Amino acid sequence: MTLRTAAALLLVLAGASGCIPASVIGPSQHERDERDKLLTRARKSGVSAELINTVAPPLLPEEEQSIQKEDASCRSSYTWKNGLTWTGSILVAMAAGLTIGGAYATGLNDTTGKILFGVSAGSLAALGSGLVAVGGIVQQGFGDRGCWVR
C-alpha cells in the first residue's frame, strides 16, 4: 500500500465518521418533543382530549415541513463538523507519525531528508489544525442555531 493510498483511505474513514445521525434535531423538533412529553403526562392524568387540543393544538403541515428542514440543516452542520474535526485530527496524528518516522528513517547526517520530513509533517499538521479549527467554527454555529443531539 502506497502512502497516497493510505492517506486517501484515512480521509475516507475520517469522512465516514461524520455520517448523519438520526438523533440530531433542530430547535423546533426539540420543542415538539418537550410538548409531546407534557401532552403524554396530561393524558395520563385524565385531562380531556378537547382541553389538550385547545391548549396545544396539533401542528400544521407547514410547521411539520419547517421542522423537517431544520432537522436536515442541523444534520448537515453536524456532518460537516464531524468530517472536518476527524479529518483534521487524523492529519495531525499522521504528521506526528511522519515526524517520528523521519527521525528514525533519516541518517544523522542527512539534512535534506530531515528537512523533507519536517516540511511534510509541518504541512500536514498545519492543514489538520486548520480543519479542526473550521470544525470548531461549524460546531459553534450548530449550537447557536439551537441544534440538539438527543
Describe the protein's topology.
Elements: H1 3-16, E1 24-25, H2 27-44, H3 49-55, H4 61-105, H5 111-144, E2 148-149
Antiparallel strand pairs: 1-2
Helix pairs in contact: 1-4, 4-5
Description:
- It is a single chain.
- This protein is an all-alpha fold and 150 residues long.
- It has a domain at 75-144.
- Helix content is 79%, strand content 3%.
- The chain contains 5 helices and 2 strands.
- The relative contact order is 0.17.
Descriptive keywords:
150 residues, mainly alpha, two-stranded antiparallel ribbon, 2 strands, 3% strand, rod-shaped
Summing up helix and strand content along with how strands pair, one would put the structural category as: mainly alpha
* Residues in helices, as a percent range: over 70%
Determine the N-to-C terminus distance: 40 Å
DSSP helical segment count: 5
Integer-rounded radius of gyration: 24 Å
Oligomerization: single chain
**Share of residues in strands:** under 5%
Any low-confidence stretches, pLDDT <50, length ≥5?
A: none
Give the helices and strands as they follow along the chain: HEHHHHE
Please give the number of β-strands.
Answer: 2
